[in-house]
Predict the 3D structure of the following.
Amino acid sequence: MKSGKCPKCGSANVRCKPGAGKIGHHGRIPSGGGFDVGMPVNRYVCAECGFVETYVDDEKARSQVAKKWPLALRAPREG
């Protein structure tokens, strides 16, 4: 989405709102991992299909995540 193209529908009608929220504040993505203060996030929304991506662009905040949050596990394959 950062490139201006939606990965779901291919539309170029992607909008961005820098500083659109904070991880860890009510009504936002839950922080987990012991964060007391929210991390600023930038949100990208496809105005055609509604797909949303959220990014933490602050390097220090991402470093904290890497230290405190567990690695995501791959989902088992169905079938």
Q: What stands out?
A: The first helix runs from residue 59 to 68. Strands lie at 14-23, 39-46, 52-55. The chain is about 15% helix and 30% strand. The radius of gyration is 15 Å.
